[in-house]
Amino acid sequence: MSIWDVFDRLSAGKKQTGTKPEFIIAGLGNPGIKYENTRHNAGFMAVDAMEEKYGFKTDTFKYKAKTAVCSIGGKSCLIMKPETFMNLSGESVSQAMSFYKIPLENVLVIFDDISLEPGHMRIRRKGSAGGHNGIKSIIELCGGEDFPRIKIGVGKKPRPDYDLADWVLGKFTEDDRKKIGEVCKNVCSAAELIVKGGISEAMNLYNR
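Structure (tokenized):
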């Protein structure tokens, strides 16, 4: 029995409110204090903003993730912070999809993007991994590329020879962290529109 099985059994009796989820909203990142406020954890930071706005806590451990079920945009949503570390995010999301029989098009993924400057965001209906290992894992394990996503800008490497892992695992400057905090408010609003079926409206409002 793996450590994940132990956690799942311990949390199995912990009730979550709400009806059967229709959507999954997964914010990607790496677990642990070491990775807090790093660029790669922008997806976790977006979920933190959702917790504050909608009044829930991702405090139930299921599907290798910290989870909560809440109503967003009138839809029951499973909110997830995968605890698998970024490169294995698909293990967590695919387990939840399978359990609740949620189709891929109802999986919204929020993650960092080094091609966008801090304070910017971009919504896409679907697409390739674009070099992002968390998205690559989800595509491989969840059955394709046809899921909506919200990209949060974290800024480009300062120079071409700068190690990419060092950059995305580095912490935000105080100024950039404030910008991320502001854009996460828009991420919350965009996510609400998307689960209500208004992805075109969300793209028109928030894509730059």
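The domain at 21-206 is CATH 3.40.50.1470 (Rossmann fold). The radius of gyration is 16 Å.
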